[in-house]
Each structure stands twice: as C-alpha cells, then as structure tokens.
Amino acid sequence: MLKGIRAELSGDILQALCTMGHGDVVVVSDANFPSDSVARQTRLGSLLTMGNIPAPQAIEAILSVFPLDTPLQPSVGRMEVIGKPDEVPTIQQEVQAIVDRAEGKPAPMYAVERMAFYEVAKKAHCVIATGELRFYGCFLLTKGVIPIEDVVR
Predict the structure, then answer these.
(1) CATH no. for residue 79?
(2) Which reaction does it catalyse (predicted)?
(3) Which of 24, 30, 118, 125 is catalytic?
(4) Which one of 30, 69, 125, 136 is the catalytic residue?
(5) Active site includes 125?
(6) Cα(122)–Cα(27) distance, rounded to whole angstroms?
(7) Residue 138 above 90 pLDDT?
C-alpha cells in the first residue's frame, strides 16, 4: 500500500497509466466486453483487471491519478446503445458525473458505435476489465498532460 493511492489501483495498473503518453487511450470495460482478446491486440498486450468492482468506482480511482485531455478535446468515450445512439444508460450517466467532478466542470462524453468501439479499443494502450455487470459499461479515456506547476517535487 502507498499513501494517497487508492487501493483499487494495483502496481500493474499504475505502471500502465504512468507509461502512457499524451493522447494515449485506456479502455475501461464491463464484464461482457471481450477484454482479454482485445487486450492482446493493444500496445501493452495483456489484460489488466480491477477485480469485481463496478466501472464507476474503477473510473473514479483511475481519475484520481490520470489527467484527461479535456482542454483540447472530448476525452471520455462511451459505447453507444445499439440502435439508440442518443440513449445514455444509467451506468454512463454515473460515469459522466464522476468525470465532471474530476474535471471540476462539465466534460461531455462522446459516443462511439459498438463495432467502432472494438476497433478503437484494439489500438488503445491497454484494457482494464472491471466487474461491471450492466450493459454499456465500456469507456475510453484519453490521457492529457500535467502542467509543470502541478507536478509534485
């Protein structure tokens, strides 16, 4: 255990998030996503897991250490509901609230069609599987930068 680091963040997850660069993408997936097979095609090449915790809890933990690229672009993608691209399920509403809190302002998510989501995920830096059981609990987080004045020395 480390001070100030949430218990949900394992050493492997922290290392993966730390080695990502500006513009790299991490996938946070639900229990129904083909996490292992997609993770094998990512830059990291292996699956990371956050046990049996729900996606909102996982994203909240990740965002405690992970800067989003929100000043430049929408930085959190969500998987679209098949046939209902404008529908935003409860799971996605919960994550939107977490993202807004982490950013200290509204930071709208962008929608990605299901099959396109899989293709983007294969090109991501890594996949972190959660125990989320609700459908459409899959998200893309784009890494931003940390200004020098915010770096702890």
Answers:
(1) 3.40.1650.10
(2) beta-D-ribopyranose = beta-D-ribofuranose; alpha-L-fucose = beta-L-fucose
(3) 118
(4) 69
(5) no
(6) 9
(7) yes
Active site residue 69: yes
Known catalytic residue at 24: no
Query: Is 9 within a domain?
Result: no
Residue 136 lies in a domain: yes
Task: Using the predicted structure, report yes or no on whether residue 1 has a pLDDT greater than 80.
Answer: no
User: Structure tokens of 38?
Assistant: 């997609």
The answer to whether position 139 is within a domain reads: yes
Q: Which pLDDT value is given to residue 76?
A: 98
Name the nearest CA neighbour of 33 among 141, 123, 131, 143: 131
Query: Is residue 27 scored above 90 in pLDDT?
Result: yes
pLDDT band at 152 (very low <50, low <70, confident <90, very high): confident
